Amino acid sequence: MVTIEPIILGFEGTAHTASVAVVRGDQIIVHKAATYVPAHGGIHPREASEFLAKQFPILLKQIITELPFKLQKIDAIAFSQGPGLGPCLRITATIARAISLLLNRPLIGVNHCIAHVELGRIITPAEDPMVLYVSGGNTQLITFLNGRYRVLGETLDIAIGNALDSLGRKLGLPHPGGPNIEYAAKKGHKLLPLPYTIKGMSFSFSGVVTAAQKLISKHNLEDICYSFQEYTFAALAEATERALSCTRKSSILLTGGVAANMRLQEMIEEVATEQAANFYAVPKNLAGDNGVMIALTGVKMFEKNDYISVEQSLVKPRWRTDQVEVKWIK
Ligand code: ATP
Ligand code: FE2
What we know:
Blueprint: E1 7-12, E2 17-24, E3 27-35, H1 45-66, E4 76-82, H2 86-103, E5 107-111, H3 112-123, E6 130-134, E7 139-145, E8 148-154, H4 160-170, H5 177-185, E9 198-199, E10 202-203, H6 206-213, H7 221-247, E11 251-255, H8 262-274, E12 278-281, H9 291-303
Parallel strand pairs: 1-4, 4-5, 6-11, 11-12
Antiparallel strand pairs: 1-2, 2-3, 6-7, 7-8, 9-10
Fe (ii) ion binds near residues 116 and 135.
């Protein structure tokens, strides 16, 4: 029997990255992305949205040129409906609605956090994993149960990526801080005292940033970066271990922008080994925000006719992982 795999056009634009991708089933056909880097300070929502508005038409043109078939062949348009920065989400939704009306194809509203998770479930062998989702805006321990992704633990204040980026700024490192802190940490060796905050399966990071900031005048940058990673990643590893031993899942999946960090991967892999579970991480080039994860989740939703009308396509800046009814997993 020949199965026809859906062709989905996906738009990601929740914060800093404008990305467009076309997939057929699980196969990536074309993928384009452009990332906004603030001139100074953190991400400015209006500036980021202006960046997206400028980049989407450019990326879409490139996609159309490189597609091995006409854009009219796509079956549906998926877009990141939330959570994220309101001005950015509105730009992304506007372009998705326009293409949907132009091509007369259904619109699929994808939850960005779930897309990070689905990506991992599709492109790694992880089937029903305990997920540690670590990014600039979110840090959650997620697993699937009774029709929904459930959040077992999460940050009580800021996300780990946000914590790394704000410490990076305080240390004078370029944005984003995460990869630069990882690089500097490799040269650090002295473990400086910092708070270790874990409450059940949840964690918090803003106090650790403040404490690390106080070390700046007395210690070298490499040791501060090293210590910050050791303390915060150890809290994430401990919470993951608890969640895994409570649920008896047989694998751990690490996803989101911070999943690119090799030290975090090493620590979470150690947890998996100790609990006799498999460890999987999304590949580095798809760890951060991308249109591929939106399009791939779109395929799953398309197969369940999980569409929305233009009237239902209002953006959802605070859309939680556990608010989505997941129709595509049994
Ligand atoms: P979300 O809405 O999922 O929170 P996001 O806007 O944070 O998305 P992502 O691209 O998923 O976007 O993640 C970006 C974060 O990943 C940034 O905080 C960045 O510093 C962090 N990051 C990227 N590479 C590394 C690395 N090697 N080590 C640590 N952090 C990293
Ligand atoms: Fe993200």
